[in-house]
Amino acid sequence: MNLEIYGHGGDLLTASARYGVDERQVTDFSANINPLGPPPGLLKRLGEALASIVRYPDPGHRRLVALLAERHRVEPDCIVVGNGAAENMALALLGLAPGKVGIVEPCFSEYRTLAEQFGCLVCSAYGREDRQFRAEPDEIERLIRETDLIFIGQPNNPNGVPYSLDELRQFAMAGERYHTYVVMDEAFIDFIPSEQRCTLLAELPAYPHLILIRSMTKFYAIPGLRLGYALASPEVAGQMRAVQVTWSVNSLALAAGEFCLGISGDYERATLALVEQQRDWLRRELDELDCLTWPSQANFLLVRLPKPWTALAMQEALGRRSVLVRSCAMYAGLTERDIRVAVKGEAACRQFIQEMKEVMGGTGR
Length: 365
Prior knowledge:
12 helices; four-stranded antiparallel sheet; 13 strands; alpha/beta
């Protein structure tokens, strides 16, 4: 049985019970969180903010919205702050009420899960292995034509590969032509250097059917607080806010978001340098173990294990050594030999490769 009984990585409690290991001693490569941990000073700020829990949080998230509007050069009414990126996906589905939803497989499991929970019919296009699991642009345009709303990962999870700016424009223009909402999930885009990011953020006013969704929990390493936001036209953002549960974002999450948007650029630069260095090192080492990887631009790698290894067998073997990886065997379009591995710091990455070598019996080149 796969470890992902709730459909996601990072489930330390289940891993502890299944493998008989102390969850505090687990090295978790199944969740894609900044290896540097939270920005310096954030935990101190959260300690100071604890006194605020005796009051309701601001239901309008006004201070955080103002900071996000300034950073992204958009009007405040274009922003929806949510309890993680996943809530913003749910708000798009609830507020816009699509009948048919398109997804590009393989992809983040919440796209399908949420759409089906809200009674939508889900239609798929499939990424091609020779295109690093990106779908052909014409296939995505067909899906846009046939649906009311489509999710596109940019960069996509679990392969970490983005679409080009020209392709994104093709998708957004198709959304306008067919009156289909195009939701671009940019949860991991902060792990790409700013000059290399492909995003339509600067062109948002040109596409009234476009929604960009971003996460603050992954880059700033605060997944336990849950914080994300969406950027869209004022009309679409208003429809999303209209169906949001009041106070869904707690005061500590808001304080964390405000703090993170005010820090210097040193943390961002250090994160990008570390992720690129360790991601490249992991790819080289995994290649030596006869594993196949794809050129991710995010803080994780999609890995195909050599035969006869399966994702489940590797997950079990590493789990008993207090190392967690994400099985991708259940992702449509992938195989039973595929896993996803987060990029962590140097010591953790070296530990991971050593454990892989030991469980594989020293096999490889």
